[in-house]
Write the structure tokens for this entry.
Amino acid sequence: MNRIDPETAELYSIADLAREFGISTRAIRFYESKGLISPERLGATRVFRRRDRARLILILRGKRLGFSLRDISDYLALYDADRGQQVNLLTEKVDERLQLLEQQLADLQTTIAELHEIRKLARERVVSS
Amino acid sequence: MNRIDPETAELYSIADLAREFGISTRAIRFYESKGLISPERLGATRVFRRRDRARLILILRGKRLGFSLRDISDYLALYDADRGQQVNLLTEKVDERLQLLEQQLADLQTTIAELHEIRKLARERVVSS
DNA sequence: CCACGCCTTTACGTTAGCGTCAAACAACTG
DNA sequence: CAGTTGTTTGACGCTAACGTAAAGGCGTGG
């Protein structure tokens, strides 16, 4: 347990990940410059492993949710807090996040319901015309 | 039906709404400049009615969901499309929106679940230490 | 009358999140 | 060996969404 298997640690170039996720290499470098990912180097060239790729997925999901990179950075820190963190402080921050997300969930459900309503009204209009 | 009752058409100053929603008057003017709201004028002074206030609520909800003002503008248009719009085109746009929102809903639920998981792991660590 | 508070417009400043060259090096390919 | 492809680090550009003065109009109260 906790052993790293080097065989399964696939390597990705920056272009690989850019292609896979439909983003620019510039964006990826930008995320690194903001400390959201920290790929290894082979000389000067960036080498990404599964961990970096996983983080990228979280970053993009955060963006779809409308979060700033700053927010996403904080969010990633919660994942990192695996070891050697004050647990109280961690759960506190997690709970903060959850509150925000549940507010967002409520907003989202309201909005979805309203759109369904609009569609329904539109259809009724068609029928009665 | 469809009659407007002038008695219930309350009036708000820009400062009223700014205070109520905890935003700046600058922001409200900015939203107007982008065509998201269009208050009446008394001389040069903006006069807001319930309709504008309702729109503001939708705007702020859109922002909490991470949408750009451009997106929100399009969204508001769906509400306006009450009368005299191509119904097909309307429902089409509504459905587009709904797709995005449901993607967002899925992202959100995943994220919430992961955070619950993190909290659970943190607590287990406390117990076993 | 004059200060005070609230309103207006105009305009420049700021931060985030990249896009877009530019210049340079490394490896492969014909 | 020249050319293509992929990488790097700057550095400047750009849009969105306001913040922040600056300068002035309108009404009210002392």
User: Anything to note?
Assistant: Chain A is about 65% helix and 5% strand. The helical segments of chain A are 14-21, 25-33, 50-64, 69-80, 87-128. Chain A touches chain B at residues 61-62, 64-67, 78-79, 81, 87, 90-91, 94-95, 97-98, 101-105, 107-112, 115-116, 118-119, 122-123, 125-126 (CB under 8 Å).
